[in-house]
């Protein structure tokens, strides 16, 4: 897969064989659990498991390199701003003050570490779901858990169109570079941002025209006239899918149990 594109690509690993509904429920339940709790033990286990599953899925890292770089940059900026806005938040949160260097305390460092773990808990799972789930199966899974099929189909079309937009953007950028516009790593960062924004505007307008054409074609085919529909790509749940859903429910139950064990959302090793 081109490392510029982010979208579904066929594969043969065990992750591809899982039902889209099971993968969706697992991703949502585990992500919500990881975002809710600040128990480092649970977050570390989910983070390591996510990375291991991503490794076993057979997806090459180069296919998500850009996304990983952007997520890393966002995580670093988030941690810096959290620390700058309130460097004593960790000390107040854990009820102790262990100074390491200047304003930096062990409590604040531990809190920031938990924030980093949350990224490792959710981002690999999100990428796994996007890269290994057929958009049509994703739409049928959304409809199966109760979301109206019109909305489900809209999400499916969006997922199908994202790689096309990325491919068009790369083609436009390469054409502009051939005409002398400096968009490589050698250019000035601010100028590259400005030029990329200029390239995005015509792409957005052309995309809106295509969306209007697709909507008109679907209306002419009487899409959405009935309350229910069948799905050509529907796949029944298998044993492995029920195991995956069970693991997700186990994760939710673990977070609930840890809430009572820790007497709150936070695991406090400084007591």
TrEMBL record:
Compartments where found: Membrane
InterPro entries the UniProt entry points to: ABC/ECF_trnsptr_transmembrane
Membrane-spanning segments: 20-36, 42-58, 70-89, 109-131, 231-261
Listed name of the protein: Energy-coupling factor transporter transmembrane component T family protein
Membrane topology: Multi-pass membrane protein
A Pfam family it matches: CbiQ
Species for this entry: Lactococcus nasutitermitis
Top-level division of the source organism's lineage: Bacteria
Main location group: membrane
Keywords: Membrane, Transmembrane, Transmembrane helix
């Amino acid at each position: 897969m081109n490392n510029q594109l982010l979208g579904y690509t066929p594969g043969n690993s065990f992750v591809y064989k899982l039902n889209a509904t099971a993968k969706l429920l697992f991703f949502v339940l585990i992500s919500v659990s990881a975002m809710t709790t600040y128990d480092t033990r649970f977050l570390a286990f989910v983070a390591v498991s996510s990375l291991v599953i991503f490794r076993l899925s057979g997806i090459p890292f180069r296919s998500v390199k850009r996304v990983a770089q952007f997520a890393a940059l966002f995580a670093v900026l988030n941690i810096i701003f959290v620390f700058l806005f309130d460097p004593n938040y960790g000390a107040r949160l854990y009820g102790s003050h262990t100074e390491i260097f200047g304003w930096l305390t062990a409590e604040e460092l531990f809190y920031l570490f938990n924030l980093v773990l949350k990224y490792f808990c959710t981002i690999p799972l999100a990428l796994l779901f996007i890269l290994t789930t057929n958009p049509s199966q994703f739409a049928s899974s959304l409809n199966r858990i109760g979301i109206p099929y019109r909305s489900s189909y809209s999400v499916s079309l969006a997922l199908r169109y994202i790689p096309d937009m990325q491919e068009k953007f790369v083609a436009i950028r390469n054409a502009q570079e051939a005409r002398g516009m400096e968009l490589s790593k050698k250019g000035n960062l601010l100028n590259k941002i400005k030029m990329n924004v200029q390239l995005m505007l015509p792409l957005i307008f052309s995309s809106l025209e295509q969306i209007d054409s697709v909507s008109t074609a679907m209306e002419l085919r009487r899409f959405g006239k009935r309350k229910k529909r069948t799905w050509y790509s529907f796949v029944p749940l298998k044993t492995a899918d029920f195991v995956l859903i069970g693991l997700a429910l186990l994760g939710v139950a673990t977070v609930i149990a840890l809430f009572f064990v820790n007497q709150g959302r936070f695991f406090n090793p400084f007591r």
